């Protein structure tokens, strides 16, 4: 008989269908879209400065430094290594190659016998060609790709075995790497292909480096933020609106120094808001974001004959400020790292509601499972005790009743008056009693 599902389980399933997928989908889509569009947040600070001062919002990255290499000889390198396990463990460099240099073969015996295509850094084909395979070529070959400028390394391993039988030639996967079984004296191509633009020529790296600053006033959504400036590795620069041109600036040689800090002079209350520095290196796959929440406080009281001080994000006042003011500034204006920011998605409330609801439903589900399991266990124990009692009563009532009859007393009257004495009479009576008893036992 099919059991009916408890109503609480049905209600939980209905709630999960209506609420959980929406919350999870919204959370996943919003996080993935925001991360891909804005980049990964690597730094966040909260800065408070007095009105009239100068702010410097730091944004540094050594990976964004543009160093033009006219020869292009050391940014990308490919090399093949051979690892042998017999007769002893050893690693040997076979060949290496870079865009600005020729193929270098390390063993003179392999010159003219092993090679890499000359167009490797044009079409992404870094395969190793071995002619006239010999028995000592057996081992594990590793193709290593290094990009020193982007600090990226990739590698692939291939096992090469040598056989003397043409029927044993094959190629297969052993669970860790591709295995080539090659006939002795033949030629083989060990594949190593990577067609990502990172490893190929014809791409201008300076055109794929972009840095820009955005300003988000209080109460404005992230997608409505104002663009302040765009910087390109090629030297192109685009300023947006009078706000940046009048009081803001970024170093002209930002890509040379890796310093994209934003300087804001003559701070005013209208400058309060969220500033974000976006660094994109499409060539290397770098996408970073730094966020600064700037608050503008009341101006500091200064003497009429003295100039206003300059403050950076470390909030170090000029020496001419009053001694009491200096201590207050160091206490009030020190930067603090923000651990929590205002959510950047309009449906953040639904996300948090989904998380809370999912946790609550999970706890209810666990409690229901515990109750059901406890009831089942008690029911099984009750059934077991009942069955045990029934078996005990059946065994007691079904015992085999043995035939019981009281032994008849033997006639002790004298059957034969001719007995000579009492001993003979007792012996004869005992014999009659044994006969009667033996007869009943056999019956």
TrEMBL record:
The chain crosses the membrane at residues 352-373. Residues 1-25 form the signal peptide. Gene3D superfamilies: Immunoglobulins. Residues 7-163 form the Ig-like domain. Pfam families: V-set. InterPro entries: Ig-like_dom, Ig-like_dom_sf, Ig-like_fold, Ig_sub, Ig_V-set, MXRA8. PROSITE patterns: IG_LIKE. GO terms for biological process: cell adhesion; cell differentiation. Keywords: Membrane, Signal, Transmembrane, Transmembrane helix. One of its GO terms (cellular component) is cell surface. This is Matrix remodeling-associated protein 8. The lineage of its organism: Eukaryota, Metazoa, Chordata, Craniata, Vertebrata.
């Amino acid at each position: 008989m099919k059991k009916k599902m408890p109503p609480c389980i049905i209600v939980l399933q209905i709630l999960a269908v209506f609420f959980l997928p929406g919350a999870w989908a919204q959370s996943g889509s919003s996080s993935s879209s925001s991360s891909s569009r804005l980049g990964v947040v690597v730094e966040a600070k909260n800065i408070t400065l007095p009105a009239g001062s100068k702010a410097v919002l730091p944004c540094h990255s050594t990976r964004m430094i543009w160093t033009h290499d006219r020869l292009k000889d050391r940014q990308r390198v490919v090399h093949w290594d051979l690892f042998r396990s017999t007769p002893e463990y050893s690693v040997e460099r076979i060949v290496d190659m870079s865009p600005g240099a020729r193929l270098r073969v390390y063993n003179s015996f392999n010159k003219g016998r092993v090679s890499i295509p000359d167009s490797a850094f044009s079409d992404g084909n870094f395969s190793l060609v071995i002619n006239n395979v010999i028995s000592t070529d057996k081992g594990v070959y590793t193709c290593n790709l290094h990009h020193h400028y982007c600090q990226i390394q990739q590698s692939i391993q291939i096992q090469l075995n040598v056989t003397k039988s043409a029927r044993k030639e094959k190629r297969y996967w052993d669970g860790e790497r591709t295995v080539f079984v090659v006939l002795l004296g033949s030629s083989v191509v060990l594949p190593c292909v990577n067609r990502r633009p990172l490893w190929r020529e014809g791409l201008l790296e300076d055109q794929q480096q972009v840095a820009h600053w955005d300003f988000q006033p209080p109460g404005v959504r992230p997608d409505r933020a104002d663009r302040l400036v765009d910087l390109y590795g090629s030297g192109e620069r685009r300023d947006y609106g009078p706000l940046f041109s009048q009081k803001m600036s970024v170093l002209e040689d930002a890509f040379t120094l890796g310093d994209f800090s934003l300087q804001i002079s003559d701070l005013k209350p209208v400058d309060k808001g969220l500033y974000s520095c976006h660094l994109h290196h499409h060539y290397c796959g770098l996408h970073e974001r730094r966020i600064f929440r700037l608050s503008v406080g009341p101006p500091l009281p200064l003497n009429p004959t003295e100039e206003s001080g300059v403050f950076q994000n470390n909030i170090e006042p000029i020496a001419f400020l009053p001694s009491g003011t200096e201590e207050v500034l160091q206490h009030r204006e020190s930067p603090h790292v923000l651990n929590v920011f205002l959510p950047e998605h309009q449906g953040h409330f639904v996300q948090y509601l989904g998380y809370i609801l999912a946790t609550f439903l999970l706890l209810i589900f666990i409690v229901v499972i515990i109750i059901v399991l406890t009831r089942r266990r008690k029911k099984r124990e009750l059934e077991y005790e009942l069955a045990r009692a029934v078996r005990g009563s059946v065994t007691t009532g079904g015992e085999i009743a043995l035939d019981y009859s009281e032994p008849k007393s033997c006639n002790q009257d004298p059957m034969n008056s001719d007995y000579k004495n009492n001993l003979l009479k007792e012996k004869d009576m005992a014999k009659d009693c044994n006969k009667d008893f033996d007869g009943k036992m056999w019956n």
